[in-house]
Amino acid sequence: MTADVHQLAKMLHELDDQMVACMKCGMCQAVCPVFAETMNEGDVARGKIALLENLSHEMIKDPVGVQDKLNMCLLCGSCAANCPSGVKVLDIFLKARVIVNTYMGLPAVKKAIFQGLLTKPGVFNSVMDVASKFQGVFTKSANEVIGSSCSRIDLAVIEGRHFMPLAKKSLRKLEPSRNTRPGKSGYRVAFFPGCVIDKIFPQVGQAVLKALTHHEVGIFMPSGQACCGIPALASGDKGSFDKLVKRNLEIFEKENFDYLLTACATCTATMHELWPLMSGDKTQSMQDRIAAMSAKVMDVNQFMVDVLKVSMPVEGHGTKVTYHDPCHLKKSMKVSEQPRALLKSNPNMEFVEMSDADRCCGCGGSFNLQHYKVSKDIGAQKRDNIVASGAQVVATGCPACMLQISDMLSQHKDQIAVKHVMEIYAETL
Amino acid sequence: MISTSLLTEFKTLLGKDNVLDSESDRHSYSYDAAVLDAVIPELVLRPTNSEQLGRTVALCNENKLPMTVRGAGTNLSGGTIPTKEHGVVILTNGLNKILEINEQDLYAVVQPGAVTAKFAAEVAKRGLFYPPDPGSQAVSTLGGNVAENAGGLRGLKYGVTKDYVMGVNFWNAEGEYIKSGGKTVKCVTGLNIAQLMVGSEGTLGVFDEIILKLVPPPVASKAMLAEFDDIAKASETVAAIIANKIVPCTLELLDNATINYVEDFTKAGLPRDAAAILLIEVDGGHIALVEDDAEKVLDICKKHGAKRVQMAKDAAEKNKLWEARRNALPALARARPTTVLEDATVPRSQIPAMITAINNIGAKYKLQIGTFGHAGDGNLHPTILTDRRDKEEFHRVEQAVDEIFDVALSLGGTLSGEHGIGTAKSKWLEKETSKATIIYSRRLKKAVDPNYLLNPGKIIGG
Ligand SMILES: Cc1cc2nc3c(=O)[nH]c(=O)nc-3n(C[C@H](O)[C@H](O)[C@H](O)COP(=O)(O)OP(=O)(O)OC[C@H]3O[C@@H](n4cnc5c(N)ncnc54)[C@H](O)[C@@H]3O)c2cc1C
Ligand code: SF4
Ligand code: SF4
Ligand code: SF4
């Protein structure tokens, strides 16, 4: 094992330049949702960076312990957004996960999912289609307003979760592909729905298409899109991530467009920031291609408000709607005013602000699968804030957040609908 | 080594989750904001109630385990870094309740792990005010504040933590409960142990309950920014404001280097060519009086050679001025990988001499130094920008720091205005005080901690 640690240490040295910027001030404790629950130093950015440094200086002999701490993170970016020293915490953690996990090997289940399923969209889609047909056998409806389900039987892996069922028809089936010319708007965009919208919330994708069509924006939505790659990257599977990036690149490079839009905060941040960040090992021409595509990626709310300038705040009445800031939109992409502006332009809704709207919901992708208890404790606070706002609808800009928030509200039997901002905006058209 | 039976005893006492003994957990508690070499603790313990805390201390004492108490670990002097083998770290973040806020008698009772800013916000909700506001308040704990006698931007007018400590109940090294001070404004019973505990950096006892004084909040405030082309003029202005019997709540200085780093970072429109800027805020119980004071301060600034004075018209403008100050550390921290923030304090009149000396020292050792700080109380933070991986450069940093403290002492100043001594500065203590003072302090320590287990190696060494 000692020889192993030596190798691992050498690999981690690459991150030294970034890690040394951490002055160990501890200010990240104020904002880390995981730390707020566990109160353990090893769970906050400062602790994880210290552990990685100690591992890279071979002061730690047990990389598994460091790996565990590294995984105990939502990758929400709250620490980075608040760090006085500007430490690029997410860069460090993602790269460290790749290094550590490549070194120690990916667990078999993840390997099967990423390498066998995710990187092969054809297979992935067929499996999900079948699953969608049979899910009723194992699940039952849990909350009508939210549309969530829970397990019919007490399964340990489910841990009492209330989940959103797979859509009867995926977006891919409802809207196989599009390729239209720009109308009056003069813009043409590509649309990347991402896995969760495609398979669970196709209505969100439809709302986006409706809004874009209404404003006479030309749309390029090719079939055969693959996942943006974040689940693989967050688990340290760089190989699968690279494959997914390449596949998407090839598909979207086929046509010309002004922006590559997504309605998923996580996809946006991944494609805009992580694609180029993780491309350092590619040929120059590949790096250039990735950079060019990434530069076009934009969140749909931002496109509507900043580019199309569609929002017109009105005196809204009726249903109260509140907004949850997805971490990847606010902390990574600095988009927070635009979704609010869209919500405020619906005359049938009154916008109310919840407290700590930008505090992470606790989902964090696979974090939710690995650390459900902590994820749920963080989500419970989000739920309390939503309820306290008095809203009947909670809107957000990330389908992953929608899943987590649905689970939290549904388990509490709250009669509060969970929607994407674009669904609410599309209702006004 | 900690025996398995003792480990089991801790687990039974505190619960499995509150006894951290994995390698990664132990390493996570081997540093603080001072980034010094450390000894890895053997165990990390988190009591969640008062009895558990007392029992934990007693068990450590019986087994001769050195104990280092840790709040948020934001101190800048190595106060929470273990220095002895087989030591334990005792966490206070399981003891974070605000037990009482008494609006009638203007005091509060808190547990040591309560976070400063949360406490201040709770107090504010009830229309009261807890002034000490260290820059780390969003995470620092009240126990840590008391143990370090932390100060903040409002120190000049409102004082520092010691001015708000009415009582400290603590566990001594042997795990006996000691009560000191109380809830009455006047309380002269017995030795003034409570004040002895302030600034004791975990060497004399482990705080359990802290009684803090609250005050009515100011109702109005005015802020301004004054630019100077000569740092001596800025210092004269500071002295003149006080001499005119106006005590601003905040009086901050940024030197030319810091101004430029902040400007590089924020592009806020600060005057890059100014030798120094002063940020001044006056507050009080009546808007007319505050405005009057603000006008007077403005005049004084102009009379003493300010090139330009900008008075904030509203809250938004005030906030913009404060941005400059808030960004001083972030801007400096981004310039180079490692930031060594020091805490030299001199009499107000000596600020120009101190800043000149710091700049000369910077030139002599070829180091980048930005200086900012609380001009109103002479508390300067010369901040050296470096890279700790560069051994040769870091050696020069250490030499520069030595010289900075020598100068501070020769100007009648002190080693620490607010960051404490810890391990980082204990070697200079004798220079500022005397050999007899150190011996006296060690005797005191020996008397209350016969096994020398409470945060050994801190302040007075040993
Ligand atoms: C960005 C930044 C800004 C800062 N700004 C300021 C500032 O403006 N003013 C200032 O004064 N300081 C400042 N500091 C220093 C530091 O934040 C303060 O010293 C603070 O009081 C430490 O609190 P803590 O909870 O982190 O204590 P810790 O660092 O955890 O502990 C500090 C000392 O207190 C002891 N201790 C903690 N709890 C107890 C207890 N219950 N019983 C006995 N001993 C205990 C510890 O053993 C240690 O010796 C700053 C630090 C940073 C990183
Ligand atoms: S806030 Fe930034 S510099 Fe401070 S400890 Fe956290 S990561 Fe390090
Ligand atoms: S990314 Fe989020 S969860 Fe992870 S350390 Fe930073 S604040 Fe905590
Ligand atoms: S789902 Fe959204 S809020 Fe939740 S962790 Fe992800 S980005 Fe943060």
From TrEMBL, chain A:
Gene3D superfamilies in the cross-refs: Alpha-helical ferredoxin
Gene Ontology MF: a single term: metal ion binding
Keywords: 4Fe-4S, Electron transport, Iron, Iron-sulfur, Metal-binding, Repeat, Transport
Source species, domain of life: Bacteria
EC number: 1.1.99.14
4Fe-4S ferredoxin-type domain residues: 11-42, 62-93
InterPro entries linked: 4Fe4S_Fe-S-bd, 4Fe4S_Fe_S_CS, Cys_rich_dom, Glc_ox_4Fe-4S, Helical_ferredxn
Pfam family for this entry, one: Fer4_8
Enzyme class per UniProt: oxidoreductase
Keyword flag Transmembrane helix: no
The protein's required cofactors: [4Fe-4S] cluster
Free-text remark on how the cofactor is bound: Binds 2 [4Fe-4S] clusters.
Catalytic activity from the UniProt record: (R)-lactate + A = pyruvate + AH2; glycolate + A = glyoxylate + AH2
Role noted for this protein: Component of a complex that catalyzes the oxidation of glycolate to glyoxylate.
The protein's name: Glycolate oxidase iron-sulfur subunit
From TrEMBL, chain B:
Molecular function, one GO term: FAD binding
Keyword Flavoprotein among UniProt keywords: yes
Cofactor names: FAD
Alphabetized InterPro entries for the sequence: FAD-bd_oxidored_4_C, FAD-bd_PCMH, FAD-bd_PCMH-like_sf, FAD-bd_PCMH_sub2, FAD-linked_Oxase-like_C, FAD-linked_OxidoTrans_Type4, Oxid_FAD_bind_N, Vanillyl_alc_oxidase_C-sub2
Keyword list, A-Z: FAD, Flavoprotein, Oxidoreductase
Entry similarity comment: Belongs to the FAD-binding oxidoreductase/transferase type 4 family.
Protein name per Swiss-Prot or TrEMBL: Glycolate oxidase
Source organism: Desulfomicrobium norvegicum (strain DSM 1741 / NCIMB 8310)
